[in-house]
């Protein structure tokens, strides 16, 4: 059994939070639960997970005894049916408290926080490294920072990334739902908001939105701006929220007459809990924007963009003032609503996997892979461990990484991983990513903290005489697919290191088994080629 966070769904013009309780071996056997506020959904999720964890604890004890008594090393072939998502809470990995590893699912730092005023300090330092930001000014009780990074991949007209940091006396859930909503309440705290509507609901964590800006920089002479962007969100285990957005073209969100279509290179909110003070909840809110407002007036762009960008970042002060005015908090958390543009709304008949790659597909069919390629490890020689990362879309892409070794040491973590069952493999298969080059939104969405891939996405394992192939279906996770929506178009500017490991759960199993590491640098999708697979000549 497993429980998956299915995110937000539109219901009668409002947003509801949905969960799915499913059978890992029979995907069709699932129950969908929904709640009108995220707190209630989280309570249900935690209760269900606690029951599942109790069962897994018993299974883990039996597995440990099985491995300790000696395991049959015969060749096995099995297929994982794990359909869980990034961001799921897996308590079974916390049973060994003597290990100082970070528990992460969905690129989220799960290290227990120290007794500090700053929330999620380690994770924030990874997303916002100290040497990347310079304090620019203090305004309305906010600290305004400017990013100090190389921006060769940006257009000249695109401004440097800037962020505002402030403290709001409200819960993370309240602020998150305010940020996600586009109803009349937004006029009370967002001075740059004029209109917003839903263009397409991709899945529970990803949506395409249309947004009109209300900017006060010489409105008689400067045309208003509008945006079409993809919005992705996730909730971290420490109670913080990340909301990211980036401009994207859409057939049902064409430029409007009388408006200049601006371009958001990177944008988002980081909403993190602080220690309560005097019984009142407190939250640190970070708002980042990197935007090109477009337009013909090159002479006024620097001052124009600086003024408008600061006006957008000042929305945190609006949030703080709006929350401070509420002397009596509502008994129930408000439900975020979004105005649906019936003329431009697209019924989400296509899945995220079928619509993801349309914009980036190369028209030359010679370089397109029309089906996911599996069982690519068939060559003789040394023992091979192969990772086939499958990227969904109208054209399926695969990144295949081969690692070889002379022999498997009996009783080692690697041997147990290779010859174990799917449940053991899923509980130990770990990825460590590290973004070396890329925009803020890439670093924030990809992350740089460990992730148990077997718990986050569906992994199929093919065991052969001389190889183990792991087919990682990225499209099986709504959260992972949402990340692809954000970063796929900017892959030529992305440099990321990835290490594949077998996780150690006890001190006796340390050090963890490194299977291999690879650097993915400036990937061009147009360079993808159809592999020529030859049958085994033996």
Automatic annotation (TrEMBL):
Q: Which SMART domains match?
A: START
The START domain covers 133-305
Q: Which CDD domains match?
A: START
One Pfam family this chain carries?
START
Regions crossing the membrane: none
What InterPro entries does this protein's entry cite? Answer: EDR2-like, EDR2_C, START-like_dom_sf, START_lipid-bd_dom
* PROSITE patterns cross-referenced by the UniProt entry: START
Q: Which domain of life is it from?
A: Eukaryota
Record-level Gene Ontology MF annotations: lipid binding
Name the PANTHER family on file: ENHANCED DISEASE RESISTANCE-RELATED (PTHR12136), PROTEIN ENHANCED DISEASE RESISTANCE 2-LIKE (PTHR12136:SF100)
Instruction: State the name under which the record lists this protein.
Output: START domain-containing protein
* Record organism: Populus trichocarpa
> What taxonomic classification does the UniProt entry list for its organism?
Eukaryota, Viridiplantae, Streptophyta, Embryophyta, Tracheophyta
